[in-house]
Amino acid sequence: MSKTLSTTQNLQILYEDNHLIAINKRPGDIVQGDKTGDIPLSEVVKLYIKNKYNKPGNVYLGVSHRLDRPTSGIVVFAKSSKALPRLNKLFAEKKAKKTYWAVVKKSPPKTHDTLTHWLRRNTKQNKSYANKKEVPDSKKAILEYQVIKKLDHYFLLEIDLKTGRHHQIRAQLTAIGCPIKGDLKYGFDRSNKDGSIHLHARKLVFIHPVKRESLELEAPLPIDAIWNAC
Predict the structure, then answer these.
(1) Is 116's pLDDT higher than 90?
(2) How many domains does the chain contain in total?
(3) Distance separating alpha carbons of residues 23 and 13, to the nearest angstrom
């Protein structure tokens, strides 16, 4: 995976107020710290807030959801202790509508379908496996997809996520024979040069946890030849 991590200079801010900040995450960034020791996006956002508002001491920032490291798109952080538990509850209760775009090489069996699987996570492999029927230690996973564009050699899918499971989209698309471009872990034949995969958290619609007004966020696509064609 590419080490060109975000800095405060290249943060792409989609929305900000006193309670929330939404970032268009670049592929390669980690949302929270992990065993790699790489600087996470959360720390970069904290530094941005500290510098912009000349804040003394530690900056408060709450992480309520994540994206896989090779994935790009919308990540929302809480800037206040009032917003964080409400935002956590909103995501836990599936009250945020998440829409993803994915590029796959093979045409799906149908142009529009709802997929239901039971996902079982292998923590040692950091991978989830999709099963057609319930198996021990599995969780139900549901998504709806539609083909929205045919490219020269690929297909662009729009995905509405109904549940939020570990590597859900990656595992479910692989289960129907459509691994995401660049996703070597889930069966694509080769990786992308920068270690990314062509999966993008495109839209997020939810009620602001403090202001109680509707928010609709949309993240511009990464810049590369395939995404440009989309």
Answers:
(1) yes
(2) 1
(3) 5
